[in-house]
């Protein structure tokens, strides 16, 4: 009975770790896509700025929550030997040190982002802004960790899901570059003066 219970518990933890890791990756991809797409204008077509900011914040918090559950279930799973320190110190694990180490690096980057966000008023906006870029670095690290450590993501529809995440970020980057190449619009406050100058120039001719 105890053996069967142990197998059931280990299986549940294994599924919990895999499922929360995949959900966290999807949400982190959404965070990066939103961050890349709205970096300059602060909004998306058809959505007010506060809605985009709220969606970005909610996805960020949810991705962190699922990431914590992912780590906790992996540590609690007795099938592999993963210590709690392995989730903080990169490349110190005895099991899959490279791929787990990449996951630890991604978690540490996100942890640094959370801490600096809480201390934003003390460290200043410029410092916080530089650290905020770590969120973009954590995404490719998370992709490498997911594809390398999980055999589920190396084939089938889960591999397609991972490729979809990569394509989503690539599409956001392409859209961001194309938007950056467009001529800048005249600020609303300056439109009247620009129109006046154009009319004055036409009268002088």
Write a brief caption for the model.
The chain is an all-alpha fold.
Descriptors:
single chain; 205 residues; mainly alpha; 8 helices; 0% strand; globular; disordered N terminus
Strand pairing plus helix content: what structural class? mainly alpha
Discrete helix count = 8
DSSP strand tally: 0
Shape: globular
Radius of gyration: 23 Å
- The percent range for helix content is over 70%
Mean pLDDT: 79
Order of helices and strands: HHHHHHHH
**Largest sheet, strands/sense/barrel:** none
Spatial gap, N to C terminus: 97 Å
Query: Approximately how much beta-strand content do the residues carry?
Result: under 5%
Uncertain runs are 1-6
Oligomer: single chain
The overall number of domains is 1
Note down, in words, how this protein is organized.
The chain is mainly alpha-helical. It has one domain (2-204). The protein contains eight helices and no strands. Helix 1 runs antiparallel to helix 2 (49-76) and helix 3 (97-118) runs antiparallel to helix 6. Residues 1-6 have low confidence and may be disordered.
